[in-house]
Amino acid sequence: MAILPLVLMGAIGAFHVADKIITLGTMSSRALAMAQARIEAKRSVRWERILMDDLNHDGMFESVMHDDGQNGDLVGGDGVYSATAEKEGVSLMWTVTPSRTGRLSGAGYVVIESRAIYETNQGHREIKLIAIRANPVYVGE
Q1: Nearest Cα to 41, choosing from 79, 71, 70, 83?
Q2: I need a labelling partner for 81 at 20 to 30 A (CA). Which of 11, 98, 110, 123 fits?
Q3: 77: which residues sit within 8 A by CB, 6+ positions away?
């Protein structure tokens, strides 16, 4: 009879640990999926629209990336276009960096970076993905 409470407490502890592991796995999977979705969206859109974002997939652009030092853009005028979004406990920041400063049409390629940051009980975690996309109409100078 004295063993039953110990077994019960052990089982409750095991379920508690399992719940934390499952929650951590869910958050990391969600963050990875969100970061990959931003990269793929930038890789698949027409070149002229690479700085526009359809975040809820309804065909309308909700976000236009800027290089003005606001809303996730670290430094204005540095040639790095940035945007941010927060969804389901994951902070998402993505940037597009042209190979040349100036007009986007004059760049031979862009570097697309997506970062997803989320909190766990051990602190914050970050997932960072990078892709390169070539300008399909660039002929050089």
Answers
A1: 83
A2: 123
A3: 67, 68, 69
